[in-house]
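Q: A reviewer asked whether we had any structural model of the full assembly, not just the individual parts. We don't, so I'm hoping you can provide one. Inputs are below.
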Amino acid sequence: MSKLHVTTKVNGDTVEFLCDPRETLLDVLRDRLGLTGAKEGCGTGDCGACSVTVDGRLVCSCLMLGAEAEGKEIATVEGIAEGGALHPLQKKFIEYAALQCGICTPGILVAAKNLLEKTPDPTEEQVRYWLAGNLCRCTGYDKIIRAVMDTAAEMREAS
Amino acid sequence: MALDSSKTTGFKYVGTRPDRPDGFDKVTGRAKFGADATAPGMLFAAIKRSPHAHARILRIDTTKALAMEGVKAVVTRADFATGLTGENWNILENVMAGDTALYDGHAVAAVAATSALSARDAMKAIEVEYEILPHVTDVDKAMEPGAPVIRTGAADASVPEGLHPNVVRYHKSGHGDVEAGFAEADLVIEDHFVTEATHQGYIEPHACLGTLGADGKGELWCCTQGHWNVQKVCAALLGLETSQLRVTASEIGGGFGGKTTVFIEPVALALSRKANRPVKLVMTRAEVFKASGPTSSTSMDVRIGMKTDGTITAAEGVFRLQGGAFPGAPMEFTAMCAFAPYDLKHVRQVGYDVLTNRPKQAAYRAPGSPMAAFAVESVIDELCKKLDLDPIDTRLKNASHEGTRASFGPKWPRIGLVETLEAAKAHPHYTAPLAPGQGRGISCGFWFNHGGETSVSLAMSEDGSAQIMVGTPDIGGSRASMALMAAEVLGIPYENIRCTIADTASLGYNEISHGSRVTYASGLATIKAAEAAVEELCARAAAKWGIPEDAVYWEDGCAKPSGPNAGDFEPLPIAEITATMGATGGPINGHFEATPEGAGVSFATHIVDAEVDRETGSTKVVRYTVVQDAGKAVHPTYVEGQFQGGAAQGIGWALNEEYIYGEDGRLQNAGFLDYRIPVASDLPMIDTVIVEVPNPGHPFGVRGVGETSICPPLAAIANAVSAAAGVRMRQLPMRPSRILEALDSAADG
Amino acid sequence: MQYHRPATFEDAVTLAAGAQGVTRFLAGGTDVLVQMRSDIVTPDTLIDIKAIPGTHDITRQEDGGWRIGVAVTGAEMREHAELDRDWPGLVEAMDLIGSTQVQGRATLTGNLCNASPAADSVPAMIAAGVTATITGPDGSRTAPVEEIPAGPGKTSLARGEMITALHVPPRGTGGGDAYLRFIPRTEMDIAVVGCGVNLVVEGDTITHARVTLGAVAPTAVLVHAAEDALVGRTLDEEALTALADLAEASCNPIDDKRGTIRFRTHVAGVLARRAAKIAYDRAKGAAK
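A: Here is a predicted structure for the entire assembly that you could use as a starting point for your response.
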């Protein structure tokens, strides 16, 4: 079976890989590039655990082929912290205990960061609807929503 | 004399809210979950599953699959141990079908290949010939005369004669004379209730990476709630010596009871043994729904008698649970939990465990209890309405408390039900005005909690920091709780303690993380292990000072002479003792292993406001308050998280989640699209009240909190919806069409 | 599976016309990839159309209407303030599909060609009078979108034919549209019933009306009689009741895991009333 050669940027680094045309971007990130931060919870776009951004747009990496990554800029949870310095959202998630098992956390952080970049002052309802595609089974979302709202407030003050 | 650090007040670390030790890993993507492991030469596996609800397997042809590029091994039932009995046989039969496929999704063969795609392609190329057999998936239908028999001879000795062979276990308990009790009542209500099967819905599918050689030695990495159990069961299913298989628990992406058993781990090991290479096996989401362990569905009858003053005179319940094609539906828990909140003179409960053509049920957060509460608390709610009684006052009037006899036998020790009811009554939510179209419901709930076999080891480092090894996977922040309890005993900062989940080769046996036992049992063992280390630290100080060991006590991380008579010595900090420990008697460790049995039971009271759209039958939960007894909240933020998570799962169960089987016996909604767990926009904030009635069975008074939180929601929401709609809802889930039908029939009748 | 990324529609059509086995066009992939993952369809040929110039553009036409490229995502439509001002019902119908993540990829054309009876954007497009340009081996043609879906999972497009653009008519004055759907949760579900309403008013009087329903028949339903029932009147209680009755009478649903015949039929009437009120208010607001 012939493989496709793809060149793309992941978290700022140029990477090249060969993939089967059927492989998803999530498969490529996890199995070919060793970036296992994005998780597969469903493989059908229903859970959001595989969330990444592609050219700044939030997507499920399970609903995009690896081949489609050609020439794109991809950002994953591994790229959120700058060096050892956590992003304010990451700090607040720990502080608020906005995670229990932590499997949905990478996807939720990627999605929430994307929200705050577009909407620095979201309402609770906006946060809840923006994150509706990120399933969390542990927390009942309460502490996640509070962590995102408080991060937004803190980032507004800081800017 | 052994050190005893028991206390219920005056804590320095316990009860604070520090950051969890594994927080950094989990917000950066660094934490390694089940599917995140790799090994050199690793193969990928896929499982061939039955598309039929019930079918005899006539022939499995793997020729085409084996001839495909990259395929290294295929296994069927013939590749597993023979001669198993009891639960090991049941588990093997579930992991890989024998002669008969017993449900849609039952594994019949598996293949390992050099890539995930080739494994999937090869799996599809395995040919299986079936003879389709009649099937049954509904619990009531499975008990009817003439229902297809799923397995003859599966019933145990508890089952009375004359019942269908699908009834495999029977439970009866209670006391008093219920008929006499009903005769004393001013009003008796009897009603029938039905709940559908639900799934734990953890976001991480089952995943493992297994390596097993022909020498009988193996390594297994998997997401599990209990790796010693995985070790034991996999060894049995593969015919290995238990100690030759080392199992490491990955970070676990949710379990809720669903990861207390094995489904794929023995398959990965069998493939690895055959291919002589590491094998990774990860379930798809559809496989998780079809072939892991959902809850039982139920059919229940409850009858309760009450006097006009609210006194319950008698209660009786019949609980029928199907647990799939294997014995084990937790009907005795359903029966025993049903009336546990109430002090009853006359009570009787009966349970039936029924086989159907569905996957083997697994535990789900307080297994069996939420359904019981739904039926019982709905009837109590209806009695209160008819007799014009306050629902909390009525429950307080009948509440179980210390010294009363539980509905299932024993006398209650110190319990906190009354305190949760009083806190709920005092909460502003209970008296807040309701908007038009809204209704309020309350419910109590009960769970036993559990202790179980536990080992913990604590080791001091030379710099005075400490590492704890526990054997209970951290499913929601338990590393933080363990470190807090150790810090409390050692008197050193929380940050100076590292808590690791040990693999099966590094620590003694630990039962599964189930029964809300982790903070209780591993916590107790951590405290005891730390106490053992403190005793040794004190002994080293005594030796240094040349005074008797019992003249030294431990405070704020220092050894101190116990008084002027013991001698005048400056406090000796922990780091000074550990710095020289090699020369003063060797490493300083503490360990503890036991089966603690003092897990205090836990009660909760929930208050819910629901709004019903009478034109579409749609329900919105607009306000939710959880009040629960935690004994002692070690890390209150994570206790709140457990309360909120249980409530959210209960909301899903009550309103939208259900296994939907077609006439063909196939599961119709094996995905998160149509198995509808609550999303962020479905829920309100969930308020919590932590009640602390110390558990006498734990040094710091801890009670398990993980499971009780899912016991009241089904009933509390049903009561709220029934109030809002003006019609009693007796079947879950209360999906919109069901509410609309109830409204229509109420309008017609 | 072969993956192609043609640079022109002509190349795409040539590839599709010459391909053997199952061919799918890939835009957002939110249906195709799910079908591949669920072993429903694995195409032999997958033609990614996103490298074709113009497919990502939303363009105002000379007549005041809109041309929407076939790879334009729901998120791009939502962010397009002018399109949203003209056709809020169409934009919200598209916006209701899936999560924020799905919105980052899903397209109107994809929703149309997936031919699900429950597609949210299709009733809204039909109500709005959207047309499609279709290109095939024999050249191009234009068709109203209601002619594209032929049944669950089936379209009327011939082998080698593909949609190359969608055209939304000029809004004009006094127009308003709305789309509502019923789902059990607040997000992430497939419509149990959907309803699109597009009205034009002069003062309080309705001069043009198109009402459509989704998920109540094998393809989206245009409630033809609604035009007669509404045009020439105000949206009073009598008109709303007549509309709800017509909506219910237009239903030909099935019982399935997502809803019963009875439930779908009843809710179609409820949604028709509710959507009509929103569209009417929007139209009157636009007329001022």
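A: Points you may want to mention in the reply: The radius of gyration of chain B is 27 Å. The mean pLDDT of chain B is 97.
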